[in-house]
Fold each of these.
Amino acid sequence: MNRVHIKTYGCQMNERDSEAVAAMLRARGYRIVADEADCDILLLNTCSVRDAAEQKAIGKAGYLQQRKRRQPDFVLGILGCMAQNRGASLLEQLPDVDLIVGTQKFHQVPGYLDNLRAARDAGVPIGETIVDIGEEAGSQNTIKDHVAPEAGEERQVNAFVSIQQGCNMDCSFCIVPKTRGDERSRPMDDIVAECRTLAERGIREITLLGQIVTSYGRRDYAHTDGVTPFVQLLERVHAIEGIERIRFTSPHPRGFRDDLVAAYGRLPKLCGYVHLPMQSGSDRILRAMNRPYTRERYREIVDALRAVQPEMYFSTDVIVGFPGETEEDFAQTRELFEACNYDMAYIFKYSIRTGTPAATLGDQVPGEVKEHRNQVLLDLLQKNSLRRTATLVGTIEEVLVEGADKSGTRYTGRTRGNRVCVFDADPRLVGQLVPLKIERASVSTLYGALVLSGVSDAA
């Protein structure tokens, strides 16, 4: 009873949390398996941002309960945001779940599983479900372990590093402050040491993660000569030998002050790709969302970043159908969406999240209206993404070779603008930055050939 499969829903923060849990479990003697059919223990790391995400995880857990009834020793656990949001109330729908662990207690999972295994080995019934969703001071410092490749596994060249957890922004539509708690930052020295260790292991690209990553350290470190703690951290990671690229997510427009904008011009390892959540292009809706910026300020940030890097790539988050959103409000969102020339966007239809201020608002937008507005933006995004990728055909892009693609016959990597590329290569190039001539493009993927002297023939 030591084979564990972790299924992750939601954002990159959840992916990082799952990896840290996997690393802790592997260090405790557990085996992490890729196929859920091979596991003795299955952990669902869940998301609560949208109701659909919760329902998907609940549906999966309900299905897995059938397996548990056939295999009494099978252990089923629910971790993360949905566990934090719903706690023991999940047992009303999922009475056979063994473990419910919230977002500040991931590091307790190995101990709880040890207890469940010991009970089983002693022939003692598991008994009541373990539920732990309490707050814990310093919990942000526990997401620090990484899974190292085992013999035969493909080399890893990029990694997520958690630098900050929680959120104090109180957007009226968002459940994250409830599921992740108040804003908490890790010590800068610890983060830098983690990045340095990753570089020594061959990691070439670091993505810094936080609920509001640009708020990093604002209460813990002094601004120095107008440089915020987050930019100070970027500078220190930039100085690490071996790290070739730096990205971060998810920021808030409020965090894009002059020092961060300028960093894109003076820190060459900082990739020219920005995820900049818009949510709405209507000032009236932004106020109702409790988003502390205007459409004008948002556009100023986009223009300032493009002034520093004209070929900057942008992605965003947009919510359509927020309570009270009129046709005029949506027209303003559409206008700003087109003007910002996004390469990628995550477009969501507003869904009520119980416990958020927006949940009590009247004037809910009908489902069919949300669906129409959602599709309008998706159509615009597809056309724009295809147009943007088409402009890259015939150009030479710097690509970090990440490994074999899903087919196993070609290789994949990403440009500095975060575009996925597929190409022929030699395994020895994994982890290297190579020039790639783009030969054709789809909406989201580039296809090309290596042009580095000697590489094309060797590949």
Note: The CA atoms of residues 212 and 252 lie 6 Å apart.
Amino acid sequence: MILDLVNYAFVAILVGICFAWVVLIRSMADSFRHTPVLDKFDARPHDTPRVSIILPARNEEGFIAKCLDSLISQDYTNYEIIAIDDSSEDSTGEIISKYAEKNSKVIHVSAGPKPEGWMGKNWACTEGYKKATGQLLLFTDADTKFEKNVMSLAVSHLESAGLDALTVIPKMICLDIWTKITLPVISTFLHTRFSAIRVNDPTKKTGYFFGSFFIIRKTTYDSVGTHEGVKHEIIEDGALGKKVKEGGFRMKMVRGDHLIEAVWARDWSTLWNALKRLMIPLFLQNGKIAVGIFFAVLFLLFMPYVFLAYSIPFATSSASFSAVFASSAVSSALLFSACVVDARALQIKMRHAICAPLGSLVVVGGFLVGLIQAKRSSAVSWRGRTYSMKDHSPDFINV
């Protein structure tokens, strides 16, 4: 009798999970259908304002050259590339210097020592901004590559639509197996809270930038406090996008996965720290709500598989076990299907997509470790630096 009651409690939970995944899949479908595209807009006559590309780089010797090559090849004419060496411990600074010697568009900036309380990338962006002469600022990452017409399209889209800021969703490149099986799991949530539909809706509070590509008017950037206003934010692009939206400025998110490629995570270490970065700011804002979010993610992303494994051996032994088996099978199928569909959209091969259960376990594990380590003096390691977040109150998302 007690076991039956427990099983029916599991069934109630699984029915809720099924409902949640129906909503999430519908949201994903809407996102696929309705997200605008960078090169599809009503073009109008406009000037060619000067663009300052701000490119922070720390320990990027394996990526910076390809990025600079793709930026130098842009068909837009009025721009400069401000490449900032953020105290790199490899040959990044030397590579930038050689490019600056050969091409007058490239301006080599050596960032000074990072001040206390700053995140490294935010400090490097600020150092680069001091050298900018453009009316428009284009922020990108050193592991990003661009088709030659991306800047022309971005400026034309921004000017034609009368926007203050434009961010582009790139094609996410995964360099190892762990990121390939994990990214589809994470990406399912990007189609909900941080979808282009919400960002582009002026009645919604959601604002978000992809750090690999966002272009913003200098006056807007100044108005929201520049990167100095988000200096302690570990997810600075999200925090800056949020400030732009809250400031009442016109911003837009578009797809550009056929025009821009960006590396999401490079290996197990960067993946693990990326997952921790997502949870730590939430915990530091509100620990109880963050713990609640963790358990919601646990039940949405992983527990359907656990309940399915639990019920299979006893599926025909009683009505309650049959109900657990049926509801867990449906919820597992919905979860797995969502990950497979997202993997296709991300152009990840099917052999990696079928590892979705393992990807779910990695995500849940990374989130759990983020909660546990949130207040440690070295909560996150990123580009050769360790950061403590315990003295800061992150603001990239309202929990």
Note: Residues 2-34 form the longest helix (33 residues).
Amino acid sequence: MGKVTVITSGKGGTGKSTITAGLGAALVRRGDRVLLIDCDAGMRGIDLMLGVSGELVFDVADIINGNCPPTSAIYPCKTVPDLYILPAPQNVRDEISPSIMRRLTKILVRYYDHILIDSPAGIGAGFRSASAPANSAILVANAEPLSLRGCDKVRHKLRHSQISDIRLIINRFNERRFRRMDVYSDLDSVIDEAGARLLGIVPEDNAAAALSQKGNPIEGRMKAAYAFDRIAARMDGRDVELVIE
């Protein structure tokens, strides 16, 4: 039985979907079989990041409405074997309810080592559906006040949903810009404001961002890929030293 993790954030633009796709590929490199579920109805993007958008016929709403079996709406990532994608509905009105998400995920989790659920930002209906089946959560934030402000509300909502395993990823970290901004004395202050244990730091990496926009997985010798690999190892229970680049 696999682990179900919701990946969320207090505000949009933190790079949450990039984290979902990057961690999925990194977990596969560790030998895991991984399913990414996009819960951002009307705004789906993971299919674009992993180069499968041209193949989409069905999505999660088609499974629920009986238009297809689950296997027809789950697409393999051709460049990353053992990484699979279940896309979000194209229309917000087809958003899946929390109870149905729980039932669907309970079936799917039998076939994967990890299910990563990409939640819409904030604490609206999409967030409630994305977090409903999860037994752990990753908060994605940037090291800036506007991004961290929403973490408190999201964390409280997650705990209200009985999710106690909540970890933090600081994304797009640039130490020079962080020092120049001079809002926080150090990264410990950022972590304290987020209110969650640190899982890892993903450095700003323009080359990795460009790859993602072109539908290619973030891998190889890129700084971001190295960070994803270390975070994936922690998710699999390895004691890996935190590295800040």
Note: The beta strands are 3-8, 34-38, 75-76, 83-86, 114-118, 136-141, 166-173, 197-203.
